Amino acid sequence: MTGLQPTAGIHLGNYLGAIRSWVALQEKAESFFFLADLHALTVPQNPEQLNHKTLDCIAMLIACGIDPKKSHIFVQSQVAGHADLAWILGCMTPIGQLERMTQFKDKSARRGDDFIGVGLLYYPVLMAADILIYGANLVPVGDDQRQHVELARDLAVRFNGIHGNTFPVPEAFFPPNCARVMSLQNPTAKMSKSDPSQSGTIFLSDSEDVIRKKICSAMTDSGSEIRALDNKPGICNLLQILSGIVGKDVSELEKIHGGLQYGKFKEVVAEATVDAIGPICKKYFLLKDQKDFLLSIANEGRLAAQSRATEMVSKVKAKVGLL
Ligand code: ADP
Ligand code: TRP
Fold first, then answer.
1. Which of 33-42, 123-132, 224-233, 301-310 has the least mean pLDDT?
2. Is 107 a known active-site residue?
3. 44: CA distance to ligand 1 center in Å?
4. What is the domain-level CATH number for residue 20?
5. How far, in Å, is the centroid of ligand 2 from the Cα of 119?
6. Which entry of 69, 70, 105, 193 is annotated as an active-site residue?
């Protein structure tokens, strides 16, 4: 089971770092994929846009290859129980562990003097509830979610220790490469939906021309070698992206493209990206306005998720002594 925040369009980092492995994993196990709209509320959202983006993300997940006949796709806020379980787990979570979370520190620092809600601190507890409520064994995520999955594991162990075996202890699953795709404009920061510079992020809905433009104007480094060196974060990132797309090791790509100028190499990466994303983008534009179809998928997913969630929450409530 895993989730994605419907806060903006889905980008290449989400795809290479997460969604692509979800598509493969759905062939191996019963899978739950959900839109984490309650997590999205941890920072201010425009209500009408959140609504649209949630449906849009369902369309994009399907376009990427998540098959609603094989997997359950649902919306977090439509399943009762996540917030209940989060409360119970939160009462067992040391506040210091939440204050030390890297993402909390980053996100709250980025808000500067703006309002920071308790939800931002509590976010990882809700995420632990999302995972444990389905008794999930495997949680495929990008590298930035490592600490959060670790908390879910800690809470499962703690709860089981106090109340007897209840939750399987979930494992995180990271893709072998591309667990962290970096911004094209600032290759020391991860590619993100919330990056103020949209030119650093490739959205799967970007047109071919926009993709080419973004990659060809990616920040590169001094020198002219196509090598994945520590002092070349820009070239490293482009090599990682190409590696994720074509499925070849970075070292092999260094040998193949080592003789190219930066500009030519960027063209290679741009064409590979366009080839990979083009079919997804076309499918997304066919699906995105089929509102009834998308709602029916979410409803089927909700029914399957709700029966699991109800069962687990009832068990947990009884174990902690709630009447
Ligand atoms: P964002 O961080 O852009 O808001 P989400 O938080 O919704 O995206 O992340 C959805 C999934 O995509 C998560 O599993 C997350 O780890 C993964 N992910 C997000 N950004 C990247 C990235 N730059 N590289 C690799 N994986 C990423
Ligand atoms: N926090 C995750 C992210 O931003 C989204 C998420 C919420 C999630 N709940 C989850 C991922 C449970 C995996 C499992 O990417």
1. 224-233
2. yes
3. 19
4. 3.40.50.620
5. 14
6. 193
Domain at 248, CATH number: 1.10.240.10
Same domain, 139 and 268: no
- Asked, for residue 265, whether it belongs to a domain, the answer is yes
Nearest-angstrom CA–CA distance, 173 and 122: 23
Question: Does the structure show a pLDDT above 80 at 156?
Answer: yes
Catalytic residue flag (residue 317): no
Catalytic-role residue among 53, 190, 232, 288: 190
The C-alpha atoms of residue 97 and residue 124 are separated, in whole angstroms, by 10
In a domain, 243, yes or no: yes
The question of whether 232 is a catalytic residue gets the answer no
Residue 118 resides in a domain: yes
Rounded to the nearest integer, the mean pLDDT of the chain is 95
Whether residues 240 and 99 share a domain: the answer is no
Residues 264 and 297 in one domain: no
In terms of C-beta density within 10 A (0-12 exposed, 13-18 middle, 19 or more buried), how is residue 104 classed? buried
Name the percent of the chain in helix, strand, coil, to the closest 5: 60, 5, 35
- Strand 2-4, strand 32-35: pairing: parallel
Residues 164 and 305 in one domain: yes
